[in-house]
Write a structure and sequence with these properties.
The protein is mainly beta. 0% of the residues lie in helices and 51% in strands. The chain has one domain: Jelly Rolls (Sandwich), CATH 2.60.120. Strand 4 and strand 5 form a beta hairpin. It starts with 9 loop residues before the first strand and ends with a strand.
């Protein structure tokens, strides 16, 4: 079935204190990264944006999080957003201060 996950749920740690960082490395040709759940904790007020590719296309709008804010996206088998094929998943921060958490993803191809 096209667009169906080909891999089981994978886990990635979110531990970023720079302006940008790779959360999940690019997958094989034709395979996208679909985020099915996540949680993040932000230390200081800033905006976070998930992107397809390094400095690439925004997958979310800039989400404003206050100091010590928590963002939770519960498990959704259809996913919340998905990268382009063979493209890494990046997190971009407006303030470049610590954001921690984890996400679950599946490869789709």
């Amino acid at each position: 079935m096209a667009g169906a996950p080909y891999s089981s749920v994978q886990f990635a740690v979110i531990n970023l204190a720079a302006a940008t960082g790779t959360l999940v490395a690019a997958q094989a040709a034709g395979v996208t990264i679909r985020v099915v759940s996540l949680f993040v904790v932000n230390t200081t007020a800033q905006n976070i944006t998930f992107k397809s590719g390094a400095g690439g296309t925004a997958l979310t709008g800039a989400m404003a999080l206050g100091a010590n804010a928590i963002l939770v996206l519960p498990f959704n088998p259809q996913g919340y957003f998905e990268t382009a094929a063979a493209t890494l998943l990046e997190l971009a921060l407006s303030g470049g201060t610590q954001v921690s958490g984890a996400l679950q993803w599946v490869g789709v191809g």
